User: Fold this.
Amino acid sequence: MGRRKKEPRSVHRENIVSAASALFMKRGIAATSMDDIAKAAGYSKTTLYVYFENKEEIVGILVLNSMKKLDDYISSALIQHETTKARYDFICRGLVQYQEEFPFYFKMVLDKINIDFESKNYLPEEKETYQIGEEINEKIKNFLLSGMEKGDLRSDLEIMPAILNFWGMLSGIIQLAANKEEYIKKSMGLSKIKFLEYGFSLVYHSIATKG
Amino acid sequence: MGRRKKEPRSVHRENIVSAASALFMKRGIAATSMDDIAKAAGYSKTTLYVYFENKEEIVGILVLNSMKKLDDYISSALIQHETTKARYDFICRGLVQYQEEFPFYFKMVLDKINIDFESKNYLPEEKETYQIGEEINEKIKNFLLSGMEKGDLRSDLEIMPAILNFWGMLSGIIQLAANKEEYIKKSMGLSKIKFLEYGFSLVYHSIATKG
DNA sequence: CAATAATTAAACTTACAGTTTAATTATATA
DNA sequence: TATATAATTAAACTGTAAGTTTAATTATTG
Assistant:
């Protein structure tokens, strides 16, 4: 008798996720069917459901991967730079890069990060996603605290609400700039990045010491 | 011979939209089918498609109606109050009220306002929605300009990018607070409104003169 | 009452998520 | 190398929802 081995489960999952990623990037998540993914990955639809619970699980893994990259962006902002302003600029650029690379996931992450994940029964990837969200929060916290210590950021900041509101302000203008790039160009003659640089300066102004 | 009159088209449209509104509020837009709407409105599904192109048109009208209310909120903020701070507080409260009353539309409006609507062929309600978006922008502009004149807001604000970035920051923190109300409560012991008040003070700080 | 406008039920199409079944293909090992 | 078994598959199926078609019914008014 003989059992079959060939490739481990993880390889098939990777093949499928990778094909799905390319299709999601090109056509969006909703416009990509499980049949499309199966065809592109070179499996039958039946096999897809051997390796994944459902479409949501595939999306969840891609969201997780994208979150890891965002976490890396932010980590390197803090490692590579010393001054508060340089760190801030790098974080902002990382967020813009993230939005541009993963527009569909950016939106989802805005909704998903930091929901209470103790109470409900989430998939392991979802829990991991939330944990990375927590790590990002922790890094933003360290950035704000060190800026306050250095005297660059207002010493009266209430750190906990400041973290999330900081994130909310930045993600708000980035999402808006992405949605309305055309309008911004037409109505004020600004490129998306010029517009955002102005927005980033406003946000910095909200947390920085005067002068 | 005889033609039938009974009720004008607008009455039927109103009946249908009104039934749809109640269902959307209760169960959300995606979870409400056209059959559900037909049943609740007391028409057959066939008749729904006599009075409306598709589900999107019904949603579009409700988004428009909700936008009108938001415009009213903001208008009355500017009429009822004189000082920059009082106006600001009232605008913020209006936005929160709007998000809470129409959570599904708030999200859509964030995406829809101010896209270039000259180029594509939109439905009349969509065009009207965009025009109300423009009116809201105009009011925010007046608010910012009068605040600058009074010396309450920074005189170096670049008005055009400031308007949209202001809107982006506020909508960003409001959407975030709505998504993560539970998390905010658990992790920092703050009510949504207390958290948002802190965020609003940050945003105000970004545009206000020092002092 | 007759002509016609409004409305309807019901069956239909299309698309997609997800499932079931029975058959096929590959492979380790005796 | 034969074969038990693991992996994979095609194809048909269910369920749901948007939107369409058709033929019949109901209401109105002259």
Observations:
- DSSP finds ten helices and no strands in chain B.
- Chain B touches chain A through 42 residues (CB under 8 Å).
- Residues 59-207 of chain B form a domain with the Tetracycline Repressor; domain 2 fold (CATH 1.10.357.10).
